[in-house]
Structures are given as C-alpha cells and as structure tokens.
Amino acid sequence: MSDTRASPRTRSSTGVSQDSRAASPSMALRHKMKERVRQSVGRKHFSDPRRQSISDKTSLPKKTPTILPDLDNDTPRVVLRRIIQTQPQVSPLVPKMSETKEPEEPGSQPPSERISSGLEMHLPDFVPEGTVITALHMSRKKKKFSISEFERGADERLPRNLADPPLDDNSLTRSLQISLATPVPPESVEKRGLIRRPKNRKTVNVEAFEGGVEQNLLQIRGKSQATSMIGMTMGTSDTEIILSNTELFAQPQLGEQSQAGFSAPEQKLLKGKSPMQGRKASNAATEEGILPDVDAEEGMPERLQKDLAWDPEHTDQMAAESRGRAVSPSPSSENIPEEQREQREHTRGSSYAEQLPGAEEQVAGVEYRRSRRELSWDLLSPDRPSSSPPAASRNLSRCLDTRPARQPVKSSRASVRETVANIIEKLGDADESEEVADVEQQMEDDSAEQEEAVSEVVESPRSARTHSLSRHSSATSAQYPEKSGRKLTKEAVEREAELDGGAVIGEVGDSEEEMTEEEGETEEPESEELSVKTPAFVRAKAYRASLLLSTPRTLKTAASRFSPMPPRAQQAAKRTATAPRRKREPALPSSLVKKIFSHYVKVPVARDAFKVVEKCVEVYFRQLSNDLEAYTMHARRKTVEEADLELLMRRQGLVTDKMPLHVLIERHLPLEHRKLLIPVAMSGNKVIPHK
Amino acid sequence: GRMKRAAPRSTLRNLIKRHKPQLRLAANADLLVHLNFLLFLHRLAEEARANAFENKSKTIKSEHAMAAAKVILKKSRG
C-alpha cells in the first residue's frame, strides 16, 4: 500500500504532467485511470504530502488536491466519455492491444499497480458501462480463458489475466477484464462444486442391520403389546413376540390408546419397583393354593388388562385410593354415588396432589405388580381340573367371545390352555408382564374373530373383577353357560359388593340385567374403556385385594373397602358400557387436544405422547374443578365466576402484574370469544358485552 | 397456521359438571376455563419441547411428555 500511497504523489505529479500532455489517447486513458485510481486511493490513503502537510489523519476521505482539478471528471460517465473521445482508436481488437500494450509497458508498473489496486478498487468502483460492455465482449473469451486459468491456480490467475488478455487496449479494459474475471473464480469454483463428488456409500452391514431389525421388532412388539393388546384381534402370531417381550409390565391394552400411552411411561416408573414385585410374588405364591380354579388364569389376563388399563387412567385415583383407601371410581361412572366418590377422590387427590406423581407411580406399580402376581397365580393354577374347564370356558367365553360363539370358546379355550402352558413355561421369567401379555395376547388372538372382542376387552375389566368373584363361586359359575358367564361377571361384581357379607353367590338377577347390558354394548373400545376405566379400576383394586387376601375373610375385608364402590362402579360401568356410546365420561375431543398441543409444540409428536397428554388433560380438569370449587366455596357462592377463574390463573402464575388477563385473552382466544369476554366500548355509550 | 377452533363450551361445562355436579358456571366463565386450558396445554407443550430438545430429539416422545406433565401439573395447582 505504500506504493499506492506513494503513487498518488507520483501520480499526482505525473497526472499533472500527463494532463498537460494527454497527447496520445492511450496516455489520456491511462491518465484518467490513474486519476481514478488516485481518487480511490486518495480516499483510502490520503496523499502523503497531504498528510504531512496537514497531518490530519481524518483527511483520508478527502481527495488529493491534484485530483481536485479532475473532480469535474468525477462521474465515471464523464471520464469515460473523455476516454472514448480522446481515444478513438481504442478498440478491443488485438492489434490495438499491441499498440496500447507498448506504451503501457513502461508504465506497466504503475498500471500494474493501478490494476492491482484496480483489482481491489475497480471492482468496487464503477466500471464505465460502455467500456464494460465492450470489454465484456472481449472479456468473454478471456473469461473462458481466465476460467481455465482460475481452475489451474488461484495465484496464477491475476498475472495470467493481466498477461493473457490479448485485448487489453487500455488498463481500463484490462482492469475490467480483471474485474470481470474476478467473478469468474466463483463460477469456476461453483462449477467445481457442481461436479458430483463421489458419494461414499457405506456398504450395508447385513448382520448389523438384521440385528437392529430384531431389536426394533422387539421394541415395537413390546410397545405394540401395550397399545394394541386389545387391538390385536388379528390373531397375529405375536404370541412368540409377546412371549419374548421382556418388559416388566404388560401394557394395558384397552382400546384407549391414552391408557396405553400412559401405561408406557408408567411402566418405566414401575420398572423400578422390582423389589416390591418380589414381595408380591411371595404373596402370590402363598395365594396360589387358594386360588380355586383356573378361572383366575383367564380372568388374570382380563383383570390384568383391566388393571393395566385402569392403572394408567387412574393412577392418581389409585394413589388417592391407596392412600386414603377411598375407592372412588373414575369420573366415568354416571352414578351420582360414583360422583360422590369421585369428589371424595378429588378431595383426596387434591390433598395428595403433590404426591400424585409419586403416588401414581407407586400405585401403578403396586397395581401392576398385583396384577402380575395374580397372573402368576393363575398361570400356576391351570391344573385345577374340575372346575377349570368349565370355568375356563366360561372365562374364555366371557373374555374372548360373544355369547353366541360357543365353538370359538372351545377353540379359544384350547388356545388359552396353550397360552397358559406357554405362560407357565415362562413363569420362570421375572417378567410377568410377558405372561400377562401372552395370555392376553392369546385371549386376544382367540377373540380375533369376534367382533365384540373389543367389547370383551371392555368387559374384561369388569369381568376381571367378576372373575375374582367368580373364582370363589366357581361352582355356581361353572354351571352357567357362556351367557351366564356374563352374569357371573355381574355376580362377581355383586359378590364384591357382598364380600363383607361373605356372600359368594352372586345375584343372578343383577347379572342378568348386566348381561343384557353387556350384550347391548357395542361401544367403541374407547368409550368402553373410558366407561369401564373407573369401575374397572375400582374393581381391579377390589379384585386385587381379594385375590391377594384370597381368603373369604380377607376378601371380605378387602371387599368391604371397595364394596361401596365396586357395585356402583361396576353397575355404572356396565350400564355405561352397554348403553350404546353411553356418554363416556365427557372428555374433550381428542382431536381438539391434539390439534392445540401440536400447534403449541411446533414439532412432531409421537402418538404415545398424545396419550400422555390426554391423560394429563384429564388430571388437569380434575384439579381445575377442585380448585374452582374451593374458590367458589370460599366466596360462599355456588357459581363459578370469572373472578374465580382469574384468581386461579393468578395463582398458577399465568396472570401477573405484568401480564393482565385481557392480554392473555386476546392472545389465545378466538375473536368471537374475545368479544364476549372483553368489554369494548362502542358508540352511543354502549359497552359490549354489557356489564 | 391453524384455524383457532372454537372452544367446546358445552363439553367444558359437562366436564366440570361431571367432576363437581353442584358447581355452576357463570355465563362466560367457561371461556376462561378454555383459556386456562389452552394456557395449560401451552405450558405443557413448551415443557415437553424443552425436554425433547434436551434429549436431542426432534420429536416429542412419551417420556418427554410424561416428565413435562408432572412438572406442569404441579405448577397448575391453585
């Protein structure tokens, strides 16, 4: 740069002299170029004499005094015009080049400097359009030239460009070429970039691939079991898969995916509870001998299903229940007493809200374990010969088939036996869930052909409970045909209720009506599950308690705990299940929840996660209603007002002094609702909505 | 973006009714309930997304949602 710095000085002098001369067109052109360069240079490096004279470093942007006279040539257009006028002979033709080259050679230094600087500055500087255009024509070839040159080497480009372009009439064109050439490198680079790089394809490692596939299959099966136990009515040969499932807990299979989804996380929670399982296993072993008949085994899968299904749904309930011994059915039941129970549960739930997560886990784990224990019992007691076949058939029919299907019952019975045998084989496994899953799978497979398999599954929770009861009344139940099997379920329910009385015989009458209900049920698995959830849950608890205790006394005590709940819950559940599409506990449309959640989360969401969200939403609504009730009661009112809602949001931290409610309303609610909530002043002294 | 779906007012009312039958709702209180619900989902979504990002996962898995649910439910207690 010192050269450039020096150049203005020299150039200025030379420029002046050249100005005077300006004889040859080329010299004039060169002079112009020099001036231009000087100007640009002067801007950057103020002429040394200037600096020295002025010693003003801030004078960089000023132009050198020598250039000042040429300032009138400021505009490139002017300079160019002058150039063109003064250089009529300038042409892109080669011969001219030689001419121009020669005179420029002595001045090659400065021109090179100029050019070099021009490289730097001409690019940013204007390029006279005309010359550019003319230069372009000739530079096209040079471009190609330069392109190839660039490709050879970056260092060689500039000199080559400088040396090669045969059409350098003047430094301007040369600079133009250079400037024009400079864009070439990117192109050449781009071209190179366009060249397809050899793709490195890793040869597929077949072994690794297959191994991964197997692992995936196992995982998928493990999950699918949870989610599609019920759905797997295809009788797929998932038995092996299920058998090989190493999950601790069988996934609840109720058609409700939410449950399954919840159970999936619950499983993880529960997996840590292995020590408890050992305890339960011991209990189960002790109880084994008590189990009367094989019904348990069939009932087990159902119960397990039901338990599993219930667990995720009502872990919080269970938590409350387990803690508070309150058997409160899920909100699914329509009965008022159930609602009362729910309220009880809610109060408990709210009191235990903090412990809910842990309690849920514990409860779910307990339930799971219990169910697994029970299953193990049942599996171990398939030998109960006498009552087992009828019981098995009954249970099978109950679990798997519709009433009319007797033959499938038998076939299913056989398959169940096979399943049981398989399960027994695997009893050694610590994973009882596998067994359960297997059994369930078998049951599912058996019922594959049954259209009401789903209903069966739905009933299974109920029947699971009844199974427990039916076990005790195996004698009576064994006599019943498949139809009565359902009755038995009802009976079992009744038995549960009457356990405190030690009455094992169910009420046939009730079972009958429940039979009709069951028969009538054609609800979707979802609705059934939902409706059955709570009662199933309750039943599961009672059932479990009864199983664990296994003695009439213990059953009594266990049942007494749940007695108020089970009958009502069961009845409600059955009634709800039977009534076609009985309003399953009103829940928000899942599509809405999915949509809103997906919108808020902005990233893809797994299906299982949706189930978790669905469950979470249910818990949330329960909490919400509790809180609102508390606030309203505190205000000695009976109606929840908007102030209560605002108080709730304030306590939740959604509404703060910095974030008023109205802002939230405007942000999240659609306009139609906003108008209703936010009073807007309209003309005519009107306020909408009217307050 | 998505069309904001209208709040299912009747469903919300039924939901609360089911939990607390003796409780009534003011005229437009269910809209605020819906607002609360949206904000709850919003917080849940944010938390779940944060969990997923922590695990360097581009999708929300059930474990992310589960952990988020625990936190947000605890936060949403009145």
From TrEMBL, chain B:
Keywords: Centromere, Chromosome, Kinetochore, Nucleus. One of its GO terms (molecular function) is DNA binding. One of its GO terms (biological process) is kinetochore assembly. It comes from the Eukaryota. SUPFAM superfamilies: Histone-fold (SSF47113). It holds the Pfam family CENP-W. It is found in: Chromosome, Centromere, Kinetochore; Nucleus. One of its GO terms (cellular component) is nucleoplasm. Belongs to the CENP-W/WIP1 family. This is Centromere protein W. The gene is CENPW.
